[in-house]
Design goal:
The chain has about 220 residues and is mainly alpha-helical. Among the domains are: about 70 residues, no CATH class; about 60 residues. The protein contains 8 helices and no strands. Helix 2 packs across helix 3 and helix 4 runs antiparallel to helix 5. The protein is rod-shaped and about 95 Å long. About 5% of the residues are buried.
Length: about 220
């Protein structure tokens, strides 16, 4: 399908050439500049412009060229994207090979340490090789530790959680719960005085008299 800015069936060669010159001046085109460029009077240019609808055709031409430019730029960008994607893949392959060689060297050191490599050198080589390998495979190169407030460890408030479920917990001292009711053995701290047997008096005896005699070690008064 013919574009509106192409030569019209009723348009003469001279008139179309003048229109092409008009288009070549770009968005800032004027009839005066066109007349000067083609060596014609301004009245001739204005007559062709009215007869062949230059202004509408020029707008269609500008829109078409903008679309062509956009497609061209998209094609260039796609080509570059494909090219750089290929380069990135090649770089990843090189990085992966370098990482494998570095890790293999560390394994060789662990199996049979060479004289020219120290443990520190092996550790640094392993660190670099690991990072390069992770970059090549798209893995994270840093380990992030989740910490609590002010960078400290995360603490679970167990007491608070239990209080919410079971109510407030009352702390009972251990001394109060240790009440067996047994008398302390003789001679131990807190027991009866020496000479006290801890036995109850025989039937018919006066408890107070028997206790006094037991304490003094003599006969009942």
């Amino acid at each position: 399908m013919a574009q509106i800015f192409e030569q019209l069936p009723s348009e003469t060669g001279k008139a179309y050439a003048a229109f092409v010159s008009y288009l070549s001046l770009g968005p800032e085109r004027t009839f005066e500049a066109t007349a000067k460029k083609i060596g014609k009077c301004v009245a001739c240019v204005v007559r062709w412009k009215k007869k062949n609808n230059w202004e509408e055709r020029a707008k269609a031409h500008d829109a078409h060229m903008a679309g062509v430019q956009l497609k061209l730029e998209e094609t260039i960008i796609r080509g570059k994207m494909v090219e750089w994607t290929k380069r990135a893949q090649e770089l990843k392959e090189l990085e992966w090979e370098a990482a494998k060689k570095g890790i293999a060297r560390v394994i060789e050191f662990l199996n049979k340490p060479p004289a020219r490599m120290s443990v520190r050198d092996a550790a640094q080589l392993l660190d670099v090789a690991s990072k390069v390998g992770r970059l090549a495979t798209g893995l994270a190169t840093e380990h992030k530790e989740i910490t609590g407030q002010d960078g400290g460890p995360i603490q679970i408030e167990l007491t608070s959680a239990l209080n919410k479920v079971y109510g407030e917990i009352i702390d009972i001292p251990s001394e109060a719960s240790d009440t067996s009711g047994a008398l302390p053995a003789s001679g131990e701290s807190g027991g009866l005085p020496e000479g006290t047997s801890g036995e109850l008096p025989a039937g018919g005896d006066n408890p107070s008299t028997a206790t006094t005699a037991s304490i003094s070690g003599g006969a009942p008064l």
